[in-house]
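Hello,

I think I submitted the glycine job twice by accident. Can you confirm which output corresponds to this input? Input:
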Amino acid sequence: MKILNTPYSVIYFGEDSYIKKKNLFLKNVSKKILLVDNISKKNCLNYFLSKIDFLKKYYIINLPSGEENKNIETCKVIWKKLLDINADRKSLFFNLGGGVITDLGGFACSVFKRGLNFINIPTTLLGMIDASIGGKTAINFLSLKNEIGLFNFPKGVIIDNNFLKTLSENDLKSGFAEIIKYGLISDINLWKKIKNLILKKKKLIYSYNLIRNAIKIKNSIIEKDPLEKGLRKILNFGHTIGHAIESYFIYNLNKKISHGHSLAIGMICESWISYKMKMITKKEFEEINMIISLLYDNIKIYNSHISKIIDFMKHDKKNENNKIKFSLLKKIGYSIFNKEVDLFLIKKSFKKTNMINLINFNKF
Ligand code: GLY
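Support: Only one job matched these inputs. Its output is below.
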């Protein structure tokens, strides 16, 4: 077992992470609550319980899966159950699932009786390298992603890549977009490795090394700026446009597009903006555009809907004084934050990625 000790959480790697009771902060715990959704219940719960057989008595809360359930109504279900079982401040939460479960479970238990401790056991690649690490907990509100939430760090995180076997290629690709992001914002060698993998059409291998590398990059940023006052905003590269596209698809077209897929498109658009703002070179932009679009499918967007997508960006949490603020690339492997971008440039960036087909309404 490898351990990464951070100032806020202990991160364990490997299936032997569960072995020692003391690792799991079980001392002086009153009630143990296990939060799952339909998917993690079906694919991961038995394995988890077999590894953690010393848990003995625990309560289980099973939620419907999906981003659309990451809301206050689902939180009420959790709070009601916690009241029913008389959970107190010494209760411990285990969030077993993808980003929805760790974000939502983290939020619900952080505000219940002003805060219960929790442990995240992410079961998706996206959860392992991003959502479960770094203390962001949240729910969606009125069509806005992660609009209500707080920073509160899990006591521990268990990274067990056996769970990756339960995922589809699309789920893995969704998580991989965040790994691409880490390379682009702060590690040119990681970007080169990714580029080679994609160009050689090698099967993407999600080894502990790759995952640990990504987590270390994220942690090094969070240690400097846990509450996203400045530097941490670089982790949002690609997300200003990516989140807006994701929300637009769910709320305006009633279609799901994965977080990683939207992020992939967001990264290309924001790289083009970086190029136009004279930060990266044309060659760098073209390389990013070519590599990312080899891995992800094209999407269709109504030309006339671009303003709706921009409306979603107006609610981005990085904005200040009603100005849309971006995290952009200064060069591959180095990024900056709080950059204001002209609306015209944002709109034009949609035409510059290989991945968006802009079409007129009547041709859709
Ligand atoms: N997902 C970006 C962050 O944790 O700051």
